[in-house]
Design goal:
By secondary structure, the chain is an alpha+beta fold. The chain contains eight helices and four strands. Strand 1, helix 7 (about 120-130) and strand 2 form a beta-alpha-beta unit. The chain has two domains: about 1-100, Peroxidase, domain 1, CATH 1.10.520.20; about 105-180. It is elongated. Helix 4 (about 55-65) packs antiparallel against helix 5. About 60% of the residues lie in helices and about 15% in strands. It has helices at about 1-20, 25-40, 40-45, 55-65, 70-80, 90-105, 120-130, 165-180; strands spanning about 105-115, 135-145, 150-155, 160-165.
């Protein structure tokens, strides 16, 4: 159900922003609000408190965001409150961000290695992925996980290329455990 709510409200905000040629501005606001909410989780708790009336929630929303966000965003936040869906705001904003990235052809890439990569290695990976993907831009995220022992794991969307020593060892262990002596 939460996924459906995120999609419905996220799509509505996306379409409104696109229709008014304000996608980039609204997208910036989405990221800023998501960041603020992550840093201030108590705000969502207060907004979702059973004793908070819709009127109080709308007044608080106006106090916090009024005059600081676009009319599209303010209207969107008010609709979430009026429909009793403010508790879903984080997933709605996340959905919007994902949808905007798809629209702008931005791929999100997660690269995990056992040691820190040099600048040259990162450039080589980015160049290779740019050549082989359909994205115009890649948003690169590099992580270090020493348990991989060696190799590299790349995740882009729902595709994973796992060429790590740890995965190869795990595969060999599974195969050997099936062998009967």
């Amino acid at each position: 159900m939460a996924k459906l709510v995120s999609k419905v409200y996220g799509d509505a905000l996306f379409e409104a922003a696109l229709e008014d040629n304000q996608l980039d501005a609204v997208w910036d606001e989405v990221r800023e609000i998501a960041s603020i909410l992550q840093e201030n989780e108590a705000f969502i708790d207060i907004m979702n408190h059973p004793e908070m009336t819709r009127e109080k929630e709308l007044a608080m929303m106006d106090e916090v965001f009024g005059g600081k966000v676009s009319d599209i965003m303010m209207g969107f936040l008010q609709v979430l409150v009026k429909k009793g869906r403010f508790g879903e705001i984080e997933s709605v904003l996340e959905y919007f961000d994902k949808r905007a990235k798809e629209y702008k052809k931005i791929g999100v890439v997660y690269v995990t290695t056992p040691t820190e990569l040099s600048g040259a290695q990162k450039q080589k990976i980015e160049a290779r992925l740019s050549e082989t993907s359909s994205y115009e831009t890649l948003e690169m995220n590099y992580n270090v996980d020493a348990s991989l022992l060696g190799g590299i794991r790349i995740r882009i969307d729902d595709r994973v290329v796992d060429n790590t020593i740890q995965t190869k060892l795990d595969e060999m262990t599974r195969k050997l455990s099936k062998v009967r002596v």
